[in-house]
Write a structure and sequence with these properties.
Layout: H1 2-12, E1 17-22, E2 25-29, H2 36-48, E3 53-55, E4 58-60, E5 67-70, H3 77-94, E6 98-101, H4 111-123, E7 127-136, E8 141-153, E9 157-159, H5 161-171, H6 173-194, E10 200-204, H7 213-226, E11 230-235, H8 236-241, H9 243-255, E12 259-265, H10 272-275, E13 282-285, H11 287-290, H12 299-312, E14 316-319, H13 325-334, E15 338-339, H14 350-359, H15 361-367, H16 374-382
Parallel strand pairs: 5-6, 8-10, 10-11, 11-12, 12-13, 13-14, 14-15
Antiparallel strand pairs: 1-2, 3-4, 7-8, 7-15, 8-9
Helix pairs in contact: 4-5, 5-6, 6-7, 13-16
């Protein structure tokens, strides 16, 4: 498939050098005297991929994500490629095309300066939260939301987590950043409650924080003083760094009413030895498996076995990255408890979240699960 995709790119941009860089990635390089050429090329590719591909006599539309960077010819090509790779990661996360112009802005590639900017950003409230709902399939209602941090940089514009979270972890700004997120979530939860929506807010906790006694103490103080209903999402690999401290501190969080969720399950080094020790009440299946659920032979087996395992450990299961009604229907038949993904909602600001909850249109979507995948869902139920 990637060879066919690369061939169409080459036909669309005959002056570009096109190389296959992986099973799902192609690299495109071209030169032009005008920066506008990049926008023209992007538009041409988007139009070209509106036409379906013929695969064994059947038509399939291939959706592409474009991440790009432009710079003057004298710039370091390695840094330009790194900038394009960052743009691609953002494009895949946000499902939009990301194009960066670093021609006249050396600071765009300066991680050290961006790290310093982040320290100031936390103090100056340049950060904001967006929320992505989780829908409980049986109840057909939003039962919680995940808080996602965004950074509105005064000169660079929107900076996404893939760019600044790793910097925060390296500089130890992750402590201040996460405490800010907790405080903001507590305030937003009160606003949600005032609007008639009593929802738990889940916050991502970096692995380094699970062994930080001062962070644990301060986080507990904030939660207990506010009475907030929060959840902490942690990855399996974050526990492996220092399992003794991580498990002990997670139990402290659980004891004061914070729900622990295991994030990105299956994407890292899954360990049943750690899994059975964690005081977790939710397990989130990584979107890597969910997005291929209806087009792969193995992924449904992995997802179903994971759901059964989690239920045996008395955990509810959340499927991330749900984008189609077919995937939602199959997950429901498999016994998945909650779904999260673009089918329900993209990450949205607080005001938009309140409107989304008031509107309630997602309930009709959750109620109409059977039609799009009835036949295959029946097969899985019998199995």
């Amino acid at each position: 498939m990637i060879v066919d995709v690369a061939a169409r790119i080459a036909d669309t941009l005959p002056d570009a050098r096109v190389m296959v860089a992986g099973r799902d990635t192609a690299e495109i390089v071209f030169e032009s005297e005008a920066r506008l050429a990049l926008d023209v090329a992007i538009a041409a590719l988007e139009i070209a991929f509106e036409d379906p591909f013929d695969i064994d006599g059947e038509s399939y539309v291939i959706h592409i994500q474009l991440g790009a960077a432009a710079a003057s010819a004298h710039r370091d090509e390695v840094l330009l490629i790194e900038e394009a790779e960052h743009a691609l990661r953002e494009a895949r996360a946000e499902r939009i095309t990301i194009a960066r112009d670093v021609t006249g802005n050396p600071a765009a590639m300066d991680r050290a300066e961006l790290s310093l900017d982040l320290t100031r950003a936390i103090e100056k409230e340049e950060l904001f939260l967006q929320y992505q709902p989780k829908v409980h399939l049986r109840r057909q209602q939003v039962t919680s939301v995940e808080a996602l941090v965004r950074w509105n940089h005064p000169t660079r514009g929107l900076v996404l987590p893939n760019d600044f979270i790793p910097l925060a972890e390296e500089s130890r700004d992750i402590v201040a950043l996460t405490l800010w997120t907790i405080r903001r979530s507590i305030a937003d939860q009160k606003a949600l409650a005032a609007s008639g929506h009593d929802l738990r807010i889940f916050i991502n906790i970096a692995g380094a924080l699970l062994a930080d006694k001062r962070f644990v103490r301060r986080a507990c103080e904030l939660v207990q003083a506010s009475g907030a209903q929060l959840g902490f999402e942690i990855t399996e690999t974050s526990v492996i760094r220092d399992p003794e401290s991580a498990i002990a501190n997670l139990k402290i969080f659980a004891d004061i009413g914070i729900i622990i969720a295991i994030d990105d399950y299956g994407a890292g080094l899954s360990s049943l030895a750690y899994l059975k020790q964690l005081p977790a009440r939710e397990l989130k299946i990584d979107k890597l498996f969910v997005t291929q659920l209806t087009s792969s032979n193995r992924d449904p087996l992995i997802v179903r076995s994971t759901i059964d395992l989690a239920h045996a450990l008395e955990m509810e299961v959340v499927a991330e990255g749900v984008e189609t009604q077919a995937a939602m229907a199959l997950l429901s038949v498999m016994g998945c408890d909650m779904i999260q993904g673009f089918l329900i909602s993209r990450p949205i600001n607080l005001d938009a979240l309140i409107h989304f909850l008031d509107d309630g249109k997602y309930q009709a979507l959750a109620a109409d699960m059977r039609a799009p995948f009835n036949r295959l869902a029946t097969v899985w139920k019998r199995a």
